[in-house]
Amino acid sequence: MAADVHNKAVPWETANGSLAPVERLRQDRCDSPTPGLVEGTEPGAGQDSHMFVHAQSFEDLTADGDDTRAEAAGSENTSRLGEPADEGAQGLPSEEEQVEEKESHPGSRAKEEDVTSEAWRRHRKHVFVLSEAGKPIYSRYGTEEALSSTMGVMMALVSFVEAEKNIIRSIHADGYKVVFLRKSPLVLVGVAQTLQSERDLSRELHYIYYQIISLLTLTQLNHIFQHKQNYDLRRLLAGSEHLTDNLLKLLDRDPGLLLSAVTCLPLSSSVRDVISSSLQAAKAKNLVFSILLAGSHLVTLVRKKDQYLHHMDLHLLFNLVGSSSSFREGEGWTPICLPKFNTAGFFHAHISYLEPGTDLCLILVSTDREDFFNLSDCKHRFLERLRRRTAYQALQEALKNPSYSVSQVGIPELRHFLYKSKSSGLYTSPEFPVPYQSEEEQERIMELYQYLHSRIHHPTRPLRFIYCCGESENLLAWVTSGFELYLCFSPLGTKALAVSAINKLLKWIRKEEDRLFILSPQTY
Amino acid sequence: MISPRMATGMQEKQYTPSLLNFFIYNPKFGPREGEEEKKILFYHPSDVEKNEKIRNVGLCEAIVQFTRTFCPSKPAKSLHTQKNRQFFFEPEENFWIVMVVRNPMVEKPNKEGKPPTIEYQEEEILDTVYGAVLQQCYSMYKLFNGTFARAMEAGGVELLTQKLEKFFYRYLQTLHLQSCDLLDVFGGISFFPLDKMTYLKIQSFVNRVEESLSLIKYTAFLYNDQLIWSGLEQDDMRILYKYLTTSLFPRHSEPELAGRDSPLRPEVAGNLLHYGRFLTGPSNLKDPEAKFRFPKIFVNTDDSYEELHLIVYKAMSAAVCFMISASEELGREFCEQLDGLVGPQLTLLASDICEQYNINRRVSGPDKEPQFKFIYFNHMNLAEKSTIHMRKTASVSLTSVHPDLMKILGDIHADFVRVDEDEEIIVKAMTDYWVVGKKSDQRELYVILNQKNANLIEVNEEVKRLCATQCIVTRHLNGYTQTLYLALIVSLLWNAII
Amino acid sequence: MSEEHYLELCDSPVQFENASSVNNVFFDEANKQVFAVRSGGATGVVVKGPDDKNSIAFRMEDKGEVKCIKFSYENKILAVQRSPKSVDFINFMPDLPHSEFSQECKTKNATVLGFCWTSWNEIVFITDQGVEFYQVLPDKRSLKLLKSHSINVNWYVYCPETSVILLSTTVQGNVLQPFAFKCGTMSKMSKFEIELPVVTKPAKIILSERDIAVATIYGQLYVMYLKHHSRTGNNPGAEVVLYHLQREGACKRSHILKLNTTGKFALNVVDNLVIVHHQSSQTSFMFDIKMKDTDSNLNIHQPVLPARSIHPYKIALTGPAAVGSQTPVPCELYSSTWSVFQPDIIISASEGYLWYLQVKLKPVVSLLQDKSKLMEFLLRRRDCKMVILSVCSQMLSRGDKGSLPVVAIVFDKLNQVYKEYLEAEQSYTMAVECGPSRGSTAHKRPVRTQAVIDQSDMYTHVLSLFTERKDVSHKFIIAVLMEYIRSLNQFQITVQHYLYELVIKTLVQHNLLYMLHQFLQYHVLSDSKPLACLLLSLESTYPPAHQLSLDMLKRLSTANDEIVEVLLSKQQVLGALRFIRSVGGHDNISARKFLDAARQTKDQMLFYTIFRFFEQRNQRLRGSPNFTPGEHCEEHVAYFKQAFGEQAFIKPVTL
Questions:
Q1: A410 CB near a chain C CB, below 8 Å?
Q2: B498 and A150 in contact by Cβ < 8 A?
Q3: pLDDT tens string B141-151
Q4: Hey, CA dihedral for B475, B478, B479, B485, is it positive or negative?
Q5: Which of B281, B475, C172, C331 could serve as C315's disulfide partner, Cβ 3.0–4.6 Å?
Q6: Does the beta-carbon distance from B381 to C575 stay under 8 Å?
Q7: Shortest CB distance from C517 goes to which of B208, B381, B443?
Q8: Is the CATH number of domain C2-316+328-359 1.25.40?
Q9: pTM of the model
């Protein structure tokens, strides 16, 4: 049934979800990858059922009416998965958490800015969230109060256009664009000076939207505004802004959110299997997903049979963990809505670091609000089991260098790359090389990837292949039915080199795939 | 209107982009409540209900104002909505021109008489293209009417609105939005390939005429609708060229088709047969009723602001524009003098050029359909060349490639615009066409290769080869094309490849 | 008015003691020497050559009246005729006995009409019965007969330049027999008859030697016959008939010069112009046989210009003896005492002057309105250059209406001549390179006459000044420059860079940069490094110039280094590197230069890229990424390390 749920929720899943038998995949694996690599045979392709409801690209985020679908899904399966976030505060973050949140980030946001100053205008990307009443809900820079009039204008524009039975999409000027996203009862506006496309920005606004949903559920959000048209949502979201702030940072830096994929901690498959199986062993009745993270890298993920986790929901979880140090102090217990799974209901996540001072963080997601102690117990079972195995040392080792250098590939002109296996929804990418150490440089190169991504995935004029020689990099992007590949070369690299680099790189990834990818995900 | 091209399925209807509104306003006029209508200087279609006009203008003001909060110096240029796109342009301080273009759409009929569902294709319109079209509208207006400000000085709002009505009423009908593409962005000038000697002959022709008819201030010389010499400054020539090639020449093309030995009355000046005739002004000198009124144009509007008579005189395929200060009275006498002087010389020159041209053509050999098509544009001299467009006039742009490919060219161009550094972009479309875009030292080159299963290197080699061969062909050819193709090579081999 | 006189007497005449009872004066056309023989030589002989310096004075015994006296070439031997039968000789060569010796003419009872030297030791006696050609043997003090020919002779005319002697024969004397002498040989040329005007009573000599002159015009030998109008004749005036005398073949009538008047005439040839002096009117006509009168295809010529008198001339009152204290007095022109010699000599024996006649070109300019005629005329003159140039600048200074076509014609005429010279030069140099072509005559270098007006002449004397003029519209200036360039191109003469510079300078001055751009676009100004550099310098005023100049350098394909320099100076380090790689030069460029440039940009990323590139080059070329000391990149290596850290270097891989 749950399968139906997600099938309904994400109908395109059938397109790539129809899994070929493992054997066929095995024999299909060829060492020299051919351009036409079919999905499921590309390097990093999962050899078993997938971990995620994974997105081919961000279309699923921006495709209209997906939340209606989600809602439909929600209404249908709240009984089973995720409790209904019907009336009242029960769904809201519990007091102590809010307190804790507040303490954990005392004024972590230097928001007091003069919103008429050049400095404020110079920010590369503004994001505003407001209610349909034009009430400010969030602003990335500058206080909502200071911006309330601006947001008022935004709302005015939106509704003015709507009055003509039309929808406002974006405003374009030299050097920046303003993108509007209408997600009743919210309106999100992005103002960016980046090279990103309108749709790319809209994708990011969706993330912000779902981030908010993940705290409240859509049902509750609607409920609130039905009752009080000009309710000040900030009262409810107080203390959670840093989540959005952090998410925006991730959007600027983390290729995973761009590729709709997750990257794994490089680990020999044997070790990973041991970890997975011990995680698998530590199950509980209402446990749906167990996820082991190392920083932003996924170590492993075990899920209930037939339950799929959308990469976006996973990213939201990552964001939750990443943005608050609170979980280091002890086991956290928080309700969370996984909007891609069900915008109507809450799950409850047990979040804790395996040991103090380690990056290994375990997330156990349950459907039961009262499940804290069971899950706490699961964690300990898992930990004991794991401690007994040598794999644990191996894991500790691996933690020392969670990423790898591009030089391992052995192509001097190659500076960086992103490789995404479509079928597994996993990607791999080396650490940023020397000249890209600064944040600006990293965001710049991400921007270039975003540019390639939006060009190659253009809604009406998609491309198979892009090569562009610029002043600071040569870039290459190539999408087949099996994988997406983005390469960044020295601007003095030649085309011939680029072509040979592709093959060399694919060979290398094939060689390394069992370290870089999770080839055999586990289920309970 | 329905374009047959896209009419897929049985009843599905494809609508191409079309002009919804076109209006000009100045927010400083009618600042007070209730006076909003005063802001509107021109509105198309005129039959729109007053309040709607005011509302639409209001929205534009709001958008512009809103964007100033993020960058006071760079306000909005376009607004994207589901159904249409609006383009804003402020050619003169506080004067705003707004063009609203409806997105192309597909009408899918529904069963049992339900209203058909309409799908808007929001990604089909390219801002760069239509933004350029809008600016062109203004340039064209300015060419024939001068600036808004001058009109205001001369006769206040009344005069301005009159001028606007008079001009745009006709002009907007000639806008063919469905056939706009990259070439509109460049608004380039196609130069006629010519050998040095013939070019020098033309030079001395122009000089002699200007010497003996000292009224003439500027001269421009064209052959086969391509420019050879311009005495005007680049920007003025650019728009004048646009007018000549897309409006004036097409209107007079018919007799030309008849060619030299047509029954057309050859003028007899002195004892020399010639084929000169006026394209502007008197259609026939012999006619006692003949009118000697010439269109007026405005050039150098930023500094000297000159108003000129535009005399266009043509013999066979050679056309010359003589520009004379509007303060001069031009009558029959002058026209006859000009006709007598220019007619014979121009006729000879025209046949010289024609001869040269044919020689070159023979050298370059028979032009067969090549494996590639290209568009070339040089920002420095506005030189433009396209093997994609068979014919480009205001009304029709016959391109030999699929519109989606043209749009991809547009996308690549947009990328070039964003960064002012040199760049090269090579893409492979889903249709497996390769598209190469190269921007180097103020030049842009776009090549479309029809080599489905070539790889990057092969494509690159192909483009190199293409340039090489083209160049060998054109080596014997005249200076200009040589520079052109050399430019191609240079720009393509700029980054050393292997 | 004075600039009306287009003829003048040279201002440094040869002066000699004027003829008198005691002083006989002789003129030798061959050596252009004037002999003043006082009392038969006893009291001295003074010989004045064309230039006053080498005047020779000597004495000789008075052995009777001297009829004729001439030096052989280089004044080696003096020949004196005193008797009708014989000629006496005196050695003037050092270390040879100075004593006279004599030679009688061979033919019995013939009288010697005169003699002519044809070389330093060969002499021709002309007697009434023929010619005798001798070689003088000064050491033997005797003569040796080389050749002789007997024929009845009325009179003779000698043309020293060609050593051709014309003998007048037959009763009427109008059949002329030319002989040509050349180192010891005497060749008889085909005789010809001068058409006389209809005569009334024949059987007496009608053709007088005064009416015949021989001269070379435009390198051809002509016999000029001054044909007086016949009393009965229907033709109004006298005319000069030119007979073209060729070494082989018959001599034919080739030109007729119309004088349209009658009277006493004398002929000169100056600078290939036939000058006819008319005594009664005291004016001279000037004819140019190369000037075609459009209508007549048979070569009948009218005077080039209206007849004018020779420019007035002043002389010191009492000849040479006087110390020039007295105020000079005007000298009588066209005086009856004048004797005129070919080609251009006028002698006034009574006053003791020898003048060369000269043509003044300046007056011609004002007298000859038709510019194209004028140019043709001037281009054929000897000292024409400055005049032509002044004509050009003057023609331009009056930028009057419709002058452009004229300017064009003039330029074309100049370049026509210019081109012919260049071609001659070229074929000469080619011939020289190919070496002596199968023993044929050694190649002669073409002489560069003043008529060859090249680009630098035009530039320095006309155009550069012209473009400075403020009173002429820049439109006209540019038009003229383009006209000149057009003309040069038409004659396929490579245009010199400084002309382009002039065009560009003018265009820039008047801020007509778009015009300039178009010219370059059509390669009117052809490519060259200097031009490219000039364009570069314009970039600040006109940005497109940068592109133009880069393209030019690329087309030149020999300027890769310059291109790199330009790009580097524009901080386009990457572009420079990509370019040099595209032409395959990236293995020989200096890493230092590029790293310096990269550093200057302050662009870390760029520096990294460039540094990496060279590391890899080192790797490829030397198997190690490290720089050699010779490359002087230490500071950059240090900087790279400090900026990106040790680990950023490429690890040396040892294979």
A1: no
A2: no
A3: 999 999 999 99
A4: negative
A5: C331
A6: no
A7: B381
A8: no
A9: 0.83
